[in-house]
Specification:
Chains A, B, C, D: Pathway: Amino-acid biosynthesis; L-arginine biosynthesis; N(2)-acetyl-L-ornithine from L-glutamate: step 3/4. Chains A, B, C, D: Keywords: Amino-acid biosynthesis, Arginine biosynthesis, Cytoplasm, NADP, Oxidoreductase. Chains A, B, C, D: It comes from Paenibacillus sabuli. Chains A, B, C, D: Catalyzes the NADPH-dependent reduction of N-acetyl-5-glutamyl phosphate to yield N-acetyl-L-glutamate 5-semialdehyde. Four copies of one chain form a homotetramer. By secondary structure, chain A is α/β, with parallel strands linked by helices. In chain A, the strands form two sheets. Chain A has a seven-stranded mixed β-sheet with strand order 8-9-7-10-13-12-11. In chain A, strands 2-1-3-4-6-5 form a six-stranded parallel β-sheet, with helices on both faces. The first copy, chain A, folds into two domains: about 120 residues, NAD(P)-binding Rossmann-like Domain (Rossmann fold, 3-Layer(aba) Sandwich); about 160 residues, 2-Layer Sandwich (Dihydrodipicolinate Reductase, domain 2), CATH 3.30.360.10. Helices cover about 30% and strands about 20% of the residues of chain A. Chain A has twelve helices and 13 strands. In chain A, β12 and β13 form a beta hairpin. The longest helix of chain A has 16 residues. The two termini of chain A are about 30 Å apart. Chains in contact: A-B, A-C, A-D, B-C, B-D, C-D. Chains A and B meet through β7, β8, β9, β10 and β12 of A and β7, β8, β9, β10 and β12 of B.
């Protein structure tokens, strides 16, 4: 197989960008031809990331849509909130395909974006044009698209865990409570007290309770699946580890269900989707079991005593929660097998 | 102040026992005169715990109630489930005061014990005689008692977090969901795959979902506070850290409340109790902030969007969740200030 | 490229074996056709390693050379000391190619093996027949060989760091001191107190000082490079991390050298060897920069004040220190490009 | 015992300062009456350190020698390099006793200070007046002194490990090599890439090889013990843990020695010094075994094969390596028992 597509990565010096470099290096049909960083333009990428020594010898490019067009067919935006909304119009005008890993194009309502992100939203027509690339739910809609909004890390773990039960009406969506936990890489590479090793190691913290910007993103899809507006309770915690997200989710079952029924429902719902793995009854997924991979593993407990369902869902936040799903979206957009370049075994232990 | 009480510790080679040694070394009125281990009897304690080198030079004693009587006035049982139920009668017959850190005497119903622990329960009269030493809830009842059942680690974090809101009827107890997380020391010192460093580090796991033996202990007290039988949903997770428990708790508010009202309710409820600290609105407690100490720190978010209350409560599982509360219980039983020997600053970072 | 070689892995339930599964899954010319475990024969491999769910559905085979012959062309032995010495004769008789990851065939002297391993050695003719597969030093000798002894993890990091300076006589080999540090996965998956999370986390330990069985392996090659018998001082430490080895090495320079001279010597010595990366002056390699990869990164400081050279060398103990180098050895033995299946980017962070 | 001494802490918002607060809270004769921070003056200390909630309710004071005099008898300086050299004259003029935890007064040569610290040194008369408070070596000289320079963390672990063997001439001081490892808290609370959790976790790094500013401090004392100028090779590494330092030290034995002889030499040398614990032959100290305490534990291996001695020494860098030794120095200066307020059991695990 020869390279068919040239890719540029904007935000190459963040964790999402560098993970894209790792994944695309193993992709049989894509070559990364430009790594771009507004802050370190002109420097060798291996200076800030010595693990790339002798693997990538690029100097970092600056942000210039025309130049990107000369070097690339697709652009991945691994940029902070507020950047993509400004860059996207020019990139699309240049005829570039865009996969945006930020939150800028995920919410269909610009108003909601402004409320939760505290920044001006992208123009409405781009919000409309962007397809929300939660691959296992909306993969069909991604095919052939030019502008893809890659989902957030928490929404990915959470929505994959809830979708079948909500869509089938097996749980009452008004009772959903989401208790989410993330490794520290989710906070990005910026140095501050909350990512300081000595403050984070041997520590477990809650943060942004009821205030995380991923809440409207989760509710937007839950509402769509339920067919009516849904609000949820969502808590985020910081785990002393680098990678991994677990969502533990609770809801009232609309009628009693055996765990085996749920397992079968989920396997049916995700049939043919290689990256969702439903666990056997009583076997709980752990974050390390998907480390470095694009898998989302899901387990259940249906509790007859309380009438509640507990769902546990895990992903690697930098892969399925960011760079991996972005590559999967590109595969889907191109009409390729969605596993291309992602078909590897998690590193364990 | 001179030593007034001699203490023996059964199970001195477990994490609970060795933490008792650390805490009682700083207690102004208690001296540990016998450290007891059925498995390592005859060996110097510093052999298995080199951090005690030149601090404690004892040889470990075997388990013998008569010998304990000769050496001690109070016995702490830091033993696995099923041991205390057999030892307690002889110890009480010898006139010894007993603080049991195991689960053997916590449930008033022997039947429930058998269901959740899978072992025969203690005789009913001992279950009845034992006072459940959740100090901030039942401290008055502990005074002068001979047989104290020290609460479990998860129930301590959970019940201190829920009690005021349940007792005052501010939340609907039927809607309570408890998402709990613990450091690895909670699993004890036994070596097995689930405590292996390489399996636990950089990993976050759920375990015993809906099946943890602390569930009936939590429900027993919640039911008492609510005045009717309560069942709850309770999930436990393993965090890659050594010490610390966080309980994140959810429930429907019976009527809208501002966070400040909750803070005031809790401060009132725990007035004069030095080891419960209620945080300011928006400041979430983290486990490291109570590390090595007997504190339980609690924070709140009342969510107008969903009508739900989120409570976050943290303890050090080996201190407030085990050895520290055991010392606090002894203090209360003796009529001393409950902070004696426990009045120190958490180690940070 | 189609599969040309079928591989069996004996010891598939250890960390070395499961890492071979991960790496060979990405190899374009090798297919793993049998995963073998004496202890778990008959069980699905994903039971003990849920990260392999739906990736490998094999039941574990038992150890039977005839059966291996039917299923495989090459056998990887990822077994404890003392197993390979017994298995190898039958495997060779069956015409199988063998890569042994254990220490059984590394020392040319059976007597030394017995002294350091405390077990009877393999027969002398197998010790002689086996080629010591330190790829960057002896790669030429591996080509076409049937029996390859894969080097130990510490010797790999250490010898790659020392070889050029010793071979060229730039350091006095009698003054070499090796201070080595390893992650916990090096101790294997067996559960015991020294790998217990709570004993290892937030802890740094020395162990087996001057007594590690890798000492004679290091000295055997150093002596060969120096042309006379060399003894060294070698200390091992346990780092609270899962993967990674660093060797910090000290020796007296035979004459003053600038760091740049050393960098050039090493680059020349390892020219064309893709997996050794020499760092720029003043840039020290860290274990995370080779995590999950087959790289060995090396840095230097030549100290004019003391006349000593300090060399820092890092590898991933499970990859370059075990399974990765084993695959590299197979590549060399087959006459393939040594990077086949190993040409990926380290996962960072 | 009642409070006899009032203490002020300058630099209360660094890890050294906050550790002083923890330790002095348990001191029977000292009360902390002023916590001082130039950067956060006016703020409640518990804002930046919530673990102090309801324990210390102080507002942070600004730096004002006159005000300190009004509130305190002794001042601890836990400040960055370059601050103490400027503050000390005014503090001494006010009649305050000073314990300086920074490096400003440790080197007798101002020139050396300038070379290694890159800052102007303190005036020569203060360098002369300051006593170097390595308690177990120079404790006698500390008694009654007004200006104490508290040793660095690495020098403490290193010099306590080397002193007896150097002083007695059992090792050749010209052959000393020091391989040191530290937890991340040694880097202070400042947020930067090298203390970022995701960069540090599951990572082991070397840094400042041959360039650490503690080198001249170590050499100054070694030279004094050896009676002639000594230079050493000293490497520092960053361990993924919060607290703890290990120094692994190597030197040639001047004549063959059994380990037991060394143990006896060291026990004799440190007789009566409670905070140095010499381990039995074959038992290696680990950092967790001194965690949170003022102990320095030391072990040995004398290697007949190489004629070299290996010494392993561990401390808690924030206690014996900083705040704990500072309190010990105050005790010695006051003529009190050196263990006052420091006589507790390490927290384990």
């Amino acid at each position: 197989m020869h390279t068919e597509l040239r890719a540029a990565i904007v935000g190459s010096t963040g964790y999402g960008g560098v993970e894209l470099i790792r994944l695309l290096a193993a992709h049989p049909r894509v070559a990364v031809t430009s790594v771009i960083s507004s802050s370190s333009s002109g420097e060798p990428i291996a200076k800030g990331y010595p693990h790339l020594t002798e693997i990538r010898t690029d100097l970092l490019d600056g942000v210039d849509p025309g130049e990107m067009r000369a070097k690339a067919d697709v652009v991945f935006l691994a940029t902070p909130a507020g950047v993509a909304s400004k860059l996207v119009p020019a990139l699309l005008d240049e005829g570039l395909k865009v996969v945006d890993l930020s939150g800028d194009l995920r919410l269909k309502s610009g108003e909601l974006y402004e409320t939760w992100y505290g920044k001006p939203p992208a123009e409405a027509r781009y919000l409309e044009q962007a397809v929300y690339g939660m691959c296992e739910l909306y993969g069909e809609q991604v095919r052939g698209r030019e502008l893809i909004s890659n989902p957030g890390c928490y929404p990915t773990a959470t929505l994959l865990g809830l979708a079948p039960a909500v869509a089938e009406g097996w749980i009452d969506p008004d009772t959903i409570i989401i208790d989410a936990k993330s490794g520290v890489s989710g906070a990005g590479r910026g140095a501050n007290l909350s990512t300081h090793y000595a403050e984070t190691n041997e520590n477990f913290k809650a943060y942004k309770v009821n205030k995380h910007q991923h809440i409207p993103e989760i509710e937007q899809t839950l509402s769509q699946l339920a067919g009516r507006p849904i609000v949820t309770t969502f808590t985020t915690h910081l785990v002393p580890m680098t990678r991994g997200i677990m969502s533990t989710m609770y809801a009232r079952l609309t009628e009693p269900r055996a765990e085996q029924e749920l397992i079968e429902l989920y396997r049916r719902y995700y049939e043919g989707r290689r990256f969702v793995r439903i666990r056997e009854a009583g076997q709980w997924p752990a974050t390390k079991e998907v480390w470095g991979s694009n898998y989302c593993d899901i387990g259940f407990a249906a509790d007859a005593r309380t009438g509640r369902l507990t769902i546990v869902s895990v992903i690697d936040n930098l892969v399925k929660g960011a760079a991996g799903q972005a590559v999967q979206n590109l595969n889907l957009a191109m009409g390729w097998d969605e596993t291309l370049g992602l078909d590897f075994v998690p590193a364990y232990p």
